[in-house]
Amino acid sequence: MSGFWETQRQLPRLPLPCIENSLRQFLEIIPAVVGPDEVREARDLAAGFAAEAAPLQKELERRKISTDNSAVDSSDYPDTHWLERFWENGAYLAGRDPIAVNLNVMINALDDSSNTQHRLERASWYLSGILQFKDHIESGRLSGEQAFKKPLCNAQYRKMFSTTRTPGLLSQGGDKLLVTPESKHIVVESKGHWYKVQMSPPPSPKEIQQVLQEIEKDSEQQREPAGGIGAFASLTATNRDQWALVRNRLVADPVNKSVINTIETAMFAITLSPHEPKTRSECWQAASHSHSNGIWFDKSFTVLIHKNGAIGNNVEHSPVDAVVYVRMFTFAGEFLNRNAPSHCRFKRMFAVPQEKGIVDVVPKEGGGCSWSRLQPRVDGFLLASQRQGLSSIRTLSYNTNLVVDIFSTFGTTQIKKVKTGPDGFIQMGLQLAYYRDQGYIPSTYETAATRLFLHGRTETLRVTSVDSAKFVKLFDDPSVSVSDKCKLFRSATKTHKDRMINCMNGLSFDRHLMALKMVASEQDRPCPKLLQSSAYKFLSNITLSTSQLSGNGAASCGFSSPTPDSYGVCYCLFPQALQFNVASHRDCSQKDSVRFIKAVTTAMTDLMSCLVADQNENAKL
């Protein structure tokens, strides 16, 4: 076994928090986000929480013992630690809303140029880089990732390719993940038509380019598919129960079953997009929904090759977290830049470090790149279903307000000069921006990784604290000195850092309380009253959802706002700049992405000015 996979055997299992620890953390946080009446109610209910939760905790303890004894390389993926099945089902597979826009993640190349003339040549090198990354995963040549000088779990890399979320009725267990590692083909969508492309042995970039050209030409010669451009893929943009019923009907027909099976077992999908996004916001919108065209949203990832040469990626979130895909798409872009002709290359905004220990191998011609057109059988039922799908994705795309902004006033270099961590600085700036924009303290989510543990995914880092609430409420008060504002800021960022470490060590409370609630539902037991309280409901209703993507200069990530009354903010950190991707719902009059992104950049500037002024004053003493 290679070093990349051998480290899996060193990883501990995710710890199970004790009831008292989770209760204490919950009670510490709620005064910052709810009123005194809600706090009083929660504290009264907390007195009986330990007794009410005890039988549920015993069930979690039983599951922990069982999963801790499971094999490291168990083929039954969701049984490696006590939380895994709860999280995969509760956060992802049991959800019934469309995954298009709502759940899928967008990852775009950070490129300042289009390339219309050489778009398919550029794309072929990018795709060749993706295939080489797959080979590095399977051979174990990738270098392992670390945090606190400890190895991180690599299990998610096994599900990047040949994975599809298949719909299932919630009454029958909900959606499932279909993983077919033996797959050797991809699928390509062009003008609403679907094609199967054999990719074994690995084809050369020139052979990939030729196949894409042939497919594009063939699609132009075909009639527009019944139901409209891209209509077949739109089936995946509907409510999950609705899509499950449609799929069950379709696979009863041998012809359609074969078509759907070919798509679902593909290593990944490609869309030859007719769009020409010019701004970063337009690129993000196209990667989110492709304007109703051609994304099979259930696929683990789809590469969008736009008409003007821009490249985007749409990722289904349930099997793999975005940061893992960002690594691959960064590798693919840099493989292109190192090996492709100069007229194909990305013009990077920032320098990109190369993967360590990786030697590029450009496949020679003579690979197994052949294609065939898929031809689903269309009847009245399929046409009606496609019309519903198109209506769904158009509604979702229209209602999503996505804005990207590069803030070039300063980056992590300047943030570190004022003696603070970049993530804490950004999060306090977001808290200040939200308070100015909305007039209240938000229930805030920040992604914290738990990959220090076997099959660890994420935990909720609760950014909002009593310290942060006091800081943002007093920041604009002219009677408060710069020195006092900075003391409040540093107290808030220390709390934030402590909570991040707590999360990464598997000792936070959100996932634990969620699991207790799910056990109660599964076993038809009484749910603890605290988990039905106003404070718990308010805390669970995230109004500011955030995630950091450390800047590597090659890719940016974004996601939608989780609820109608919320903002979704993904931020990328670079030495000399910051990028903010902000999402909101157009049908919520209180939220506006353009207005909020201005509030964010103003808050960052004001916060930096305050810290610099305090630093200069201290230097005089």
Written description of the protein model:
Helix content is 44%, strand content 15%. The chain is of the alpha+beta class and 621 residues long. The strands form four sheets. It has an eight-stranded mixed sheet, sandwiched between helices. The longest helix is centred in the C-terminal third of the chain and has 28 residues, at 593-620.
Strand content: 15-25%
Average pLDDT taken over every residue? 92
Low-confidence stretches: none
> Helical percent range?
40-55%
Give, in spatial order, the strands making up the sheet with the most strands: 11-7-6-8-9-10-1-16
The total count of helices amounts to: 20
Structural class by sheet pairing and helices: alpha+beta
Largest sheet: 8 strands, mixed
Distance, first to last CA: 59 Å
Q: Tell the overall outline.
A: globular
> Cα-atom Rg, whole angstroms?
25 Å
How many β-strands, per DSSP? 18
